[in-house]
Amino acid sequence: MMKKGVFVGVKGVKEVKVVKGKCLAGSVNTASRKGVGIRRLVPCLVRVLPFYLFTFLPLILINSCREDEVVVPTEYDIVPVELSDGTGVVGMYLLNEGNMGSNKCTLDYLDYVQGYYVRNLYAERNPHVVKELGDVGNDIQVYGSKLYVVVNCSNKVEVLDAATGIRLGQVDIPNCRYVRFYRGHAYVTSYVGPVQLNNPDAVQGAVYKVDTLTLQTVAKCTVGYQPDELEVLGQYLYVANSGGYMAPNYDYTVSVIELEGFKQVKKIPVGINLHRIKADNEGKLWVTSRGDYNSIHSNLYVLEKKQGRNEMEVTDTLDIPCSNFCISGDSLYYYSTEWNNYTQSNTITYGIVNTRTKQKVSDSFIQDGTEADITIPYGIAIHPETGDIFVTDAKNYVSSGVLHCYSKDGFKKWSVRTGDIPAHMCFIVK
Fold it and tell me: What is this structure's pTM?
């Protein structure tokens, strides 16, 4: 079980600057800059300042000196969330991808116990880590007491203590993409080869099996080309192969891995350039394809077991463009940001599909017209208790994004600034 997080603090935290190997502490009055009233700030100071001063400030001042670098301070924004009593959902992590090659992957945290949105916590919690999280955050998941952060171009999975955000170690995996878990092991998809388009010598991708106790890779299973998201269903692991580096010769299969023996036993033909894959409550698999960004459009597919057999097959093609989705109960919430090479523009749509009937039941899960505030939807999640809908906005891909929170009825509740390219979310449950 998760312990109560320690993501407490106030606006006006300390910035630690390293100049020629010496640590200099300086005040950053972000509370004044953001216009937070003194009446709201003083109670927060009284409550958390002693803890912050005696816990985090010595850690920063003593241990964080990096030669000629600045440790960027964590920022705190008050958000109008319904506070948790420390049980159930106590927080949500948000991983900001950062632009490829910029080394700007960052980690944010929505604290349901204290009522703060905590921005860029990794650097302050781990001041000794060179280059911080790294280049392009691609997935984030919690398993037990650990948080797993997949950092694609840095070729690693960072493993953190989920309650504190403090780094525990890393697993080196080339061009890693997504992670899922089964019986004490993490399963990580990998492109294996480097980031390289239209390489005639491209190698097939793989799934790496990692022991979650030792953080050691214990096995590897070859799958299709450039595998992306994966899902555990029963005794099998299903992997969406994209072939995204190989246009126009995309992969179009879902690999089926028998978990006990950890070997690929089948490939299911689905559609070109696959990406997302998730299971619903009835044991169906929902799979998205990106298409070819031209004449073949993005689509949403349903896989079910054959009658009387333990094998999955495509049973429905819904003709619905889908970039990302999440499932809550019998509802699949999706958005599509479909790029067209010919028009050089995106077509953005939102909707809800009933997973039992496989029918679209709504053209948008946002009912108050505030979808107009979103430039590029880039991530989606559903609060498992309240049903609140979270959608991230990547904006222009090079500056801060925004996290929007909507009620389950589709009305905006609040928004907050994030890091660059906010994308992946996971909840912490005590």
Answer: 0.84
